[in-house]
Amino acid sequence: MASGIKGSLKPAGGAPDLTNTYKLFSASATTTVIISACNTAATPDTVRIAIIDSGTTATSGAIDAKHWLEFDYSLSGNSAMERTGVTLENTGRIMVGSGAGNISFSAYGIET
Questions:
Q1: Is the pLDDT of residue 62 over 90?
Q2: What are the backbone dihedrals phi and psi of residue 22, each rounded to the nearest 5 degrees, phi first?
Q3: Residue 70 · residue 51 · CB < 8 Å
Q4: Per-residue DSSP letter, 40
Q5: In the prediction, which pLDDT does 101 show?
Q6: What class, spelled out in words, does domain 3-111 have in CATH?
Q7: Which burial class, exposed, middle or buried, applies to 35 when counting CB atoms under 10 A from its CB (0-12, 13-18, 19+)?
Q8: What pTM did the predictor assign?
Q9: Which of 1, 85, 89, 96 has the highest local Cβ count within 10 Å?
């Protein structure tokens, strides 16, 4: 069982897609994580977080609406949010992005 930081990413602003540019983490076993989003700017930014199941194998193209955990959530400047208890199956992915590129994302947790 491996635990700890599973991924960290600060993507440029814009709508995330299924490419590796926006991949925060890809599970290699059933994994439960906490996702943290931190706005590093003094102004608000929007957060997008998608949970991609193992059955979705595409590595390019738009993210289907059914995968969004957060969609354009407004995060105040110099603040953070967390989503806990997010569980992915083997090969499941977390994709992230923000409107202006001011959000740093981290995922930490445990594989079972």
A1: yes
A2: -110, 10
A3: no
A4: -
A5: 98
A6: mainly beta
A7: buried
A8: 0.96
A9: 96
Residue 9 neighbours by CB under 8 Å, 6+ apart: 22, 23, 24, 96, 104, 105
pLDDT the model gives residue 1: 67
Query: Taking the CA of residue 15 as centre, how many other CA atoms within 13 Å lie in the half-sphere pointing to its CB?
Result: 9
What is the rounded average pLDDT of the residues 78-99? 98
- pLDDT exceeds cutoff 90 at 32: yes
Tell me which residue has tokens 């594989």. Answer: 111
Tokens 């943290």 — which residue? 36
d(CA 15, CA 28): 26
Tokens 């540019």 sit on residue: 21
What does the alpha-carbon distance between residue 24 and residue 94 come to, in Å, rounded to a whole number?
A: 6
pLDDT at 15: 95
